[in-house]
Amino acid sequence: MARLADMQVRQDEVEQFMRALPPADRVAVRQNGAAVELMLRQRLANEALLKEAREQQWAERPEIRAKLQAAVQEVTDRVISSSYLDSVTQLPAGFPSDAELNAAYARAKSQLQIAATYHVAQIYLPVEQGTNSASVQAEAAKLSKQARQGDFAALAKARSQDAPSAAQGGDVGNLPLAQMRPEFRETVAAMKPGEVSDPVQSPSGFHVLKLLAHQAARAATFEEAKPGLQTLMREQRRRELAYNYLNKLAPASGVSFDHAALDAALRNVR
To answer: Fewest Cβ atoms closer than 10 Å to its Cβ: which of 17, 218, 237, 253?
Structure first.
């Protein structure tokens, strides 16, 4: 995907990075080639910096070796203590029970909402560096007019410059507003299914949007809410057990404080 001397960024590394992004950010990255190239250059620059430091045997300097040893010890202590705490606060596999889940669902039902979703397609025209954005906007306006009168999907396949969505007739997926690019949200929220927008400008270009379908917000059913409730209740219970265990190890009645020394330390740090 990118190479600098004997260093490279592989395709699988880029794909792993993309999968970790929220859907809206993933779309934004695909539409901004310059930003992707900058990211890859920075990655290679960091690798080059590390390589240079190793060639200079930087890790052998006494002060660096001391920092490394301290960092290793800190991470080691954290892993040991956290993994041990996990082991002594294990929850039964059956927690929470169905009765506990149903009770939690009944208490929180009004707050357990499925956000409204918008199934959107786009025709994307980038504004390349040195390109007159007004001419690109005018071209996008023409495509918007054509799309209202014809086959949006066919036009997107032929003219959109975002290859992944163009191959799907412009389809960018079914998303809640919060996962869309900020520039899209107001326009999409005001559209009705089947409508085609005027060009919408983003930092990388212009987008002609079509709302394919809209699902209004609604209360989650018990089955939809159940996985999230299970996770939340297990995590809350685990935190409670961890707090109680730590409190047992260092109870308030067993810890003494030198308040004068403590106050002095707090005053000395500005």
So the answer is: 253
